[in-house]
Write a structure and sequence with these properties.
The structure is a homodimer of 321-residue chains. By secondary structure, chain A is of the alpha+beta class. Chain A has two domains: 3-136, 2-Layer Sandwich (60s Ribosomal Protein L30, Chain: A), CATH 3.30.1330; 153-310, PurM-like C-terminal domain (Phosphoribosyl-aminoimidazole Synthetase, Chain A, domain 2). Chain A is 36% helix and 24% strand. Chain A contains ten helices and twelve strands. In chain A, the strands form two sheets. In chain A, strands 7-9-6-10-8-11-12 form a seven-stranded mixed β-sheet. In chain A, strands 2-5-3-4 form a four-stranded mixed β-sheet, covered by helices on one side. In chain A, helix 3 (92-108) links the parallel strand 3 and strand 4 (113-120). In chain A, helix 1 (3-15) packs parallel to helix 3 (92-108) and helix 2 (57-74) runs parallel beside helix 3 (92-108). The two termini of chain A are 33 Å apart. At the A-B interface, strand 1, strand 2, helix 2, strand 3 and strand 4 of A face strand 1, strand 2, helix 2, strand 3 and strand 4 of B. Strand 1 of chain A pairs antiparallel with strand 2 of chain B.
Chain lengths: 321, 321
Amino acid sequence: MSGREQAFITALRQIAGDPAARNLSDDAAVLPRPSGDLVLSHDIIVENVHYFPSDPPETVAQKLVGVNLSDLAAKGAKPIGALMGYSLGPDYKWDQAFLKGLESVCHQYNLPLLGGDTVAVPRHTGHFSAMTVIGLAPSCGVPDRRAAKEGDELWVTSPIGDAGFGLNLLKQKKNINHSAQEKLVQAYRSPEPRLKEGIWLAPHVHAMADISDGLLIDAERIANASGLAVRIRLDRVPLSSEAISCFGDTKSTRLQAVTAGDDYQLIMACAANKRQELLKLSKEKQFDLYRVGQLTAGSGLSLFYGAEPIKQPDRLGYLHG
Amino acid sequence: MSGREQAFITALRQIAGDPAARNLSDDAAVLPRPSGDLVLSHDIIVENVHYFPSDPPETVAQKLVGVNLSDLAAKGAKPIGALMGYSLGPDYKWDQAFLKGLESVCHQYNLPLLGGDTVAVPRHTGHFSAMTVIGLAPSCGVPDRRAAKEGDELWVTSPIGDAGFGLNLLKQKKNINHSAQEKLVQAYRSPEPRLKEGIWLAPHVHAMADISDGLLIDAERIANASGLAVRIRLDRVPLSSEAISCFGDTKSTRLQAVTAGDDYQLIMACAANKRQELLKLSKEKQFDLYRVGQLTAGSGLSLFYGAEPIKQPDRLGYLHG
């Protein structure tokens, strides 16, 4: 182990304070027997695929944790630990800033860092990091992407599209000088997993997932996995006031919002007779919930603006690679 | 998701048959409540750091699984699942061969693949893969690297050094044309985690770890973590007949063996009065176990050949980066 690697791990120890982490001094973490089923997810993020080399390293850590926790949110699970794989790049200041972001985001979501691995990689290898998160399943059972029922209504948390708009701003290399633009870029760089909402919603849904690749594609995945068709009402999709102030509220903006990735909002299929219950829940717990479509017999996706059928865009969502 | 990524995941589904994997169609895996404590480990392997671009892809999969399971072996844990992160490179044939190796090694160790993530990476990014393994802790409790006691004897499974010798052969770009050389290269490329031995040994040890960076450095880590000194008898270190036939049995060979990484043998500290019990266990279960040293009061590492003190080598083990 190099001095650089050693210094990094020493700094990590400050973050990994849970006894299960064994001070990062053992071969493995030891987690006391969980009180229920486990939900497990693993996501990697890679420079120039999931973030720009120019993104602040703190936000890269926030993205790593955010996208992983979002999978737990989609299953209504409570995070109980994480393991991280990290490529040490040539720039130790970058690594230190990443650690600062990691500490802050682990603290924010009360996520114990239990262990992992650090590798100094050859200079030409782009930076990447991997995370596995472990969550405690909700006692109501874990919502499945495959369990939507005919007649279910499709709901989403809000807003939709902000991260995609932020990505576009960065791609256009515009000066980000309005607070609205900053908010959109922040949505792209530092996604906020809907953990609380996932836990509240899990007992009320048939199927739930997170929107990682775009509302349309993730809605279609629920429909496909459940053997159903899905209809989406474009006019009902919740845009943020920041998105509207930067891009206006047009059909084209809305099509952009529903085909953009990295939202990390929740999308769920719920029995139609649960509508009042869901609205009451969102009011009580003070989070936004929008009914944007319906699951019906058949297959495939159809899109409407009010009653008007809309041509399906060529690209339903974000396609890596 | 690109067609290439989709094809890879379709192929992965053939391997991830456990119901907990949810057919790789959901956001996360759902593992029924485990019957005991959990042991968790995460290791990444990177091209040009942990393996050569010319290594057969099947063996890269074996190494990924082997190094991860070795951490469970060191804690006496029984594997119950794994999640994998994988960088899709430019060569799909390579990926397919990797999958073939993955399927075979998961089958060999009865390891359910539960989920993970696949990312098509930019061409210049070297190949890497990450794995998190989850194991069921032994009912006797999980051996800790930090729990060796003064007077403990130090034991290792056998052989020591083969992987390092294999690596040297590959570095020298020699033609590998003897079965002994092949065996050494195989030890480097396809480490065999000592899972069964770990489970058998766990109830008898104070401390246990796997030898990933070299016998000396890993012995010193146990000593440091336990606040003790360690004495190693070089003449007692078990070399394989293949290592001896290729490199002879000299002090220099032995020094090479104890400072080479990638052994993935187990190293453990046991009470001196357990000696007969351990020898009986190794005879009954038919695996080799060698007493190579002792933990004493104090700190640091000292090295002997018989009664003769040996100068400590500059490099105690394999240092990545």
